[in-house]
């Protein structure tokens, strides 16, 4: 960035109305919103669940992209609806396959009239889809459809796991995988699974399977399920003994380093199921390692395990610019998982990352051709560094070390610059905010903002960044806030501009930036576009970190401002404007509700009118019925005499039946009272069950807080242990010196005794001589 760039930036920031065809961009946003290919496929399948729509969804969902990876996180409600539909469809297909040639009634509910017969391959595909969308979807307590699916999985696995040749049963492996993923992050699913009637038979089948097979997939999937369900119980302490845990570690690390496999690497287009991906088993193995580490005893064993450090170093070696995307994802997933286990692992990762070559290689990967690999790597660095970047500050103190990162910083800034065109070309905010390029750029900008806390990196950014392009990007996203409908503001967050504003603000503290550019940048940061972006950040309801960074940024900018009130008024204008848009969204919602209420009143009047017409028709029907009754009465008189004759015989029979009826009635009443007591008892049990579930959720939250406190205590205990070891060393030295002093005193005492005896002898001799 030079003075000419600053001059262009000055003229650019003062002319907001006509920048880079913003009006055309806004007009494109005003059209009917489009959807991504995956969202379209999901919607089509939910609307019409069939083998054809499931195949289309599978082809779209298995693609390796950042959009697909974070789809469940960004569309939780849609994924929950999809999982319900998949569960119903899968159960229907399973019932059809079980009934062979007979058409089951349940299958017709989820099939089109022209749909062909379902095949076993369809159920495998539905299981794969259930896994792909259950990975990062927080289910909570399962719906009715998911409960049925969980029951089917438990019952089916309990039987299939005991059959011979289960190592080649792809369906069994997929069923284990789906259940393992559904209980991984959803406490409600775990609670429901533990309360199932056949869960003990399921545990028994998995235990038998673990003792009877050597297949890595069956072993890892089964252990993952058991670790997530029974690790904290008495059964878990027996099942995961120190010997068994050591065997599990051997298996897991052999899977992670590839020694378990035959090193054949198949491309995604050649695979028949997701089980053929080597990376899938490695991902699940890494998750299993973290699940086992929930036990403090196993965590201590893992911290001392000899293969943990080589595996960490190997993962950092895998993460490089020319590395394979899937293996980079596995390595990043493993490192990001273990860094959260304990302070010991965080220190291990920071120590490995503190090597200049490793850090340079990992930072290079943030501009990897695969956007998903690059995005995941950036997230990994942010997670490892955390809020304290001082751990790697020493690497950039020599200027030549910082200059080595110049190409990497340039590439990251180029990525941010290229995003300007992507934002301008996008026709829909929903598609833009979930595109691979946008998600990658957000993480890169966030990482660069974090690295800007280092003066050396900040100087490189000042030399490389284009304020003109940065201002364009911020202004375009600010314009998007004004172009979207008010009701869409709650779903659209200009994350890239939020991080970019933080990045530009951090450049002000660099000494290499000229005063002219600083003044220009300060002026731009006080514009309405920036304040609008900050307003969107402050009203963010999905990412607490963004709100925290925005508050810190506001505090910093107001602290360094000469006229704080004037600056605050400028920022308040954009923030209030955004809040007004949120208020407009609320007003629109209230207006919609009022309109619906008005329509309801009109409908009520229509119903009243129809009711009055119905009353008239009923009155006419009553008149016709009266005429018919009179005719029937005349006919009845003719048969009255005949009926009277039969009444006597019937009366006798009636008396007998009335006696029996009274007896049966008394029995029914007693049974009804008994049933009412049972119903009330069941209701009380249900209420107690709900209370226990709520208490269990509270206990899990308290357990998480206690884990965090234990981590803090571990750090303190480690410090006390170090102090204690130093004190013990000093005590040993002092005891050694004391022993030496005692020996010297003993020697002196002996010499003193000998000399005293000699003196007494001499005195005696002298006394005798004189006598």
TrEMBL record:
| InterPro entries assigned to the protein according to its UniProt record, in alphabetical order | CIP2A, CIP2A_N
Name used for this protein in its record: CIP2A N-terminal domain-containing protein
UniProt keywords (A-Z) are: Coiled coil
Q: From what superkingdom does this record's organism come?
A: Eukaryota
Annotated ranges, domain CIP2A N-terminal: 171-351
Q: Which PANTHER family match?
A: PROTEIN CIP2A
Signal peptide from the UniProt entry: none
Q: Which residues lie in coiled coils?
A: 593-630, 689-758
